[in-house]
Design brief:
Elements (H helix, E strand, L loop, with lengths): L7 E7 L9 E7 L6 H11 L6 E4 L7 E5 L2 E2 L6 E7 L2 E2 L17 E10 L5 H8 L3
Parallel strand pairs: 1-8
Antiparallel strand pairs: 1-2, 3-4, 4-5, 6-7, 6-8
């Protein structure tokens, strides 16, 4: 599940809730100590500006939440929202607060964005998306 390249972030996008395969992969996004999931997304978008885009909203008390990736927007399918996973675990904070690396040791990370039905997700996911400032 981890990226093969050292000191890199791999970003996988799952835009179809019924398909277990990623619809988009951004490999080898460079990292730095203290990088957040949002910073990795910004770097990934800069590296792939012709075929990748996302939009962020800052209405949650848990930090920035992505509400659109490659034109697929939160709620465009009933109860489906973008949820953040880091190294195979659902994030308990928003993208701007989810730190991928704490230090400069040789590390890799997998950031996944899954467009999921929140009625099937953990209650904390819905809380992240709906908590307001």
């Amino acid at each position: 599940m981890m990226v093969a390249t050292s000191n890199a972030v791999q970003i996988k996008i799952y835009a179809d809730p019924s398909d277990p395969n990623p619809t988009h992969i951004l490999p080898d996004v460079p990292w730095f100590a203290g990088i957040t999931a949002l910073q990795a997304m910004i770097i990934g978008e800069a590296m792939n500006s012709t075929n990748f885009s996302f939009r962020v909203e800052y209405r949650s008390i848990y930090g920035a939440q992505l509400d659109s990736i490659d034109g697929v927007t939160d709620g465009s399918k009933p109860n489906c929202y973008w949820l953040l996973w880091i190294n195979g675990k659902e994030s308990s904070v928003g993208a701007s607060e989810a730190i991928l690396f704490e230090d400069l040791s040789n590390q890799t990370a997998l950031v996944e964005w899954k467009f999921q039905d929140v009625t099937l997700a953990s209650p904390s996911s819905l809380k992240l998306k709906t908590a307001t400032l």
